[in-house]
């Protein structure tokens, strides 16, 4: 139906715009896909694919910031991101639909709480870096979460890099985009192999998300980020309440 494709386009457009500024795009893509009849597990996978170009573009745009990286190994981040993405995607693939239906509102609630706590989390930056013995398992755990459920991933990564001692927020943002792109790409490959992707919807939403990302990046100069954050939090709370009522949790 026309309204369904319109809903998916609008959701993906604004999801791409939100992700280019403050994150939170999955609060729109996942509910929209579920509302048009895509099963929740497949909706999570399809929505993740739809947002992948934005992660890749963000990583490429900030690639020069990696030159300022002194204390975190890119090889270590790459390895842990890929392994974590694989584990998370396989867990999603093996999760029964009935179980994921119950998990959705709790996952959305957790992601919303991350946004509410974001300023405090991101501001907690260590004076010095930590070693790979701590860095590897922490990034691995976050990557598993990202491969399983993408909501709030960016905020979580920024907070983690701050705690791990990445002193510059610009460098942390670059690393966030790199890790997000890597784990999402590898997770999407597994989603595709597992037959979870609804391709017409995914391609349609990728186009809309890319357009939204461009518009959002340009508009971000004129819209206070604080207003966007509260808007995202409101959407997250509404979607959480909707899914709690939908599945009777």
TrEMBL record:
TM helices/strands, residue ranges: 33-62, 74-94, 100-118, 130-149, 155-175, 182-207, 227-245
InterPro entries: TM_pro_TauE-like, TSUP
Subcellular location: Cell membrane
The entry's keywords: Cell membrane, Membrane, Transmembrane, Transmembrane helix, Transport
Record membrane topology: Multi-pass membrane protein
Pfam families tied to this protein: TauE (PF01925)
Domain of life: Bacteria
Primary location: membrane
Family the entry assigns: Belongs to the 4-toluene sulfonate uptake permease (TSUP) (TC 2.A.102) family.
Protein name, as recorded: Probable membrane transporter protein
């Amino acid at each position: 139906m026309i309204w369904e494709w319109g809903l998916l386009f609008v959701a993906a457009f604004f999801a791409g715009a939100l992700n280019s500024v403050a994150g939170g795009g999955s609060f729109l893509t996942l509910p929209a896909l579920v509302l048009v009849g895509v099963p929740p597990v497949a909706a999570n996978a399809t929505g993740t694919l739809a947002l992948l170009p934005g992660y890749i573009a963000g990583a490429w745009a900030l690639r020069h910031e990696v030159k300022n990286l002194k204390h975190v190994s890119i090889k270590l981040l790459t390895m842990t991101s890929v392994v974590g993405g694989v584990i998370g995607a396989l867990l999603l693939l093996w999760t029964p639909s009935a179980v994921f239906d119950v998990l959705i509102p709790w996952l959305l609630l957790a992601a919303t709480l991350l946004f509410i706590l974001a300023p405090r989390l991101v501001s907690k930056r260590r004076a010095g870096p930590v070693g790979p013995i701590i860095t590897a398992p922490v990034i691995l755990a976050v990557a598993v979460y990202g491969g399983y459920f993408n909501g709030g991933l960016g905020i979580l990564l920024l907070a983690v890099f701050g705690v791990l001692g990445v002193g510059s927020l610009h460098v942390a943002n670059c690393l966030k985009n790199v890790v997000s792109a890597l784990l999402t790409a590898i997770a999407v490959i597994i989603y595709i192999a597992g037959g979870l992707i609804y391709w017409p919807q995914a391609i349609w939403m990728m186009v809309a998300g890319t357009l939204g990302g461009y518009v959002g990046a340009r508009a971000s100069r004129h819209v206070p980020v604080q207003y966007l954050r509260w808007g995202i939090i409101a959407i997250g709370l509404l979607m959480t309440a909707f899914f709690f009522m939908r599945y009777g949790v």
